[in-house]
Amino acid sequence: MWRELFGFVYRDLRRRGIPHADSEDLAQEVLEAAWAGLDAVEPGKLHAWLRAVTRNKLADRARYRQAPTPVAELPDAIDPAPGPDESALRSAERRALASALVRLPERDRRLIEMCHLEERPVADAADRLGMTANATKVALHRARARLRRELETTGGSDE
């Protein structure tokens, strides 16, 4: 009986233009719902009732499927070059950083240059300075704090 009902629901879904895999899934959902309410169906009206359950399952599926959100069109190309204001700001920031680095103790300056400007790993900086990796991490933390204080003291500008 269930195979016959599955075939009936599956064919109904395919006639409605539902793809094969989705029709199989939906037919199972319809039969699950049918199983729960089968006792309330009047004799001779089973097929009509299954069509109604099928229609409701299709409506549920359509309701829960969200249409993709359209993405605003992006310009073809974005100019990666900074504008004049941004260039001036970056230039001033570089001068302030260079000025603050010069005022740091030699080891602090070297640590910051190696780990941040040259992007070397801490282990490499430790080897070059003859320190352990843990000691280098602590020294780098302290060097950053000193650099931050230097930049705050001068207001981030050249003197």
In N-to-C order, the SSE pattern is HHHHHHH
Number of helices: 7
- Which range does the strand content fall in? under 5%
The counted number of beta strands is: 0
Mean pLDDT metric:
82
User: How helix-rich are the residues, as a percent range?
Assistant: over 70%
Q: How many domain units?
A: 2
The end-to-end distance, rounded to whole angstroms, is: 92 Å
* Structural class computed from helices and strand pairing: mainly alpha
Can you tag this structure with a few keywords?
159 residues, mainly alpha, Arc Repressor Mutant, subunit A, 2 domains, 7 helices, rod-shaped
Q: How would you sum up this structure, described in words?
A:
The longest helix is centred in the C-terminal third of the chain and has 21 residues, at 133-153. Helix 2 (20-37) crosses helix 3. The radius of gyration is 35 Å and the shape is rod-shaped. The protein has helices spanning 2-15, 20-37, 46-64, 84-103, 106-117, 122-129, 133-153. It starts with a helix and ends in a 6-residue tail after the last helix. It contains 7 helices and no strands. The protein is an all-alpha fold and 159 residues long. It folds into 2 domains: 2-64; 100-153, Arc Repressor Mutant, subunit A, CATH 1.10.10.10. The mean pLDDT is 82.
